[in-house]
């Protein structure tokens, strides 16, 4: 019994010493040029970096003279947001997009230009992606909004061994 108690005490001391040495990751709040009002006026961070993890808040597709131009602008902004935190599009592991639509048919129609532009920005090792239909976004005239999570450096080591689908 004495030997078990001594072993448990030593294990507890070792675990305590290890816990004191571990340094939690830092958390940085970032805003690319032109997005500072998001942080100061709307009280949200456009980008948060925690260690090597980067979270990009929703970027509305709000600038441009056509729906496609607005969507392309949002993807360009996504790239700039990632770069502000030291990440690249290759480092993106997850996307979420929100699309304004009244019904499923409109949702699918509005997704077509997004799919086209997505292919321009993500050429390989595609991120996980969830697309959601909604009736409204905070930015009134935006047809969609996109947010992302990335892990800095993960794009350099990405691999995919996914077989191509059989011809139909």
Automatic annotation (TrEMBL):
Give UniProt keywords alphabetically: Hydrolase, Signal
Domain of life according to the entry: Bacteria
Alphabetical list of InterPro entries matching this protein: RutC-like_sf (IPR035959), YjgF/YER057c/UK114 (IPR006175)
MF annotations from Gene Ontology: hydrolase activity
**In this record, what's one Pfam family?**
Ribonuc_L-PSP
**Signal peptide, first to last residue:** 1-19
| Cited SUPFAM superfamilies | YjgF-like
Statement: the UniProt record of this protein carries the keyword Signal = yes
Q: What is this protein called?
A: Rid family hydrolase
Q: Which organism is it from?
A: Lysobacter cavernae
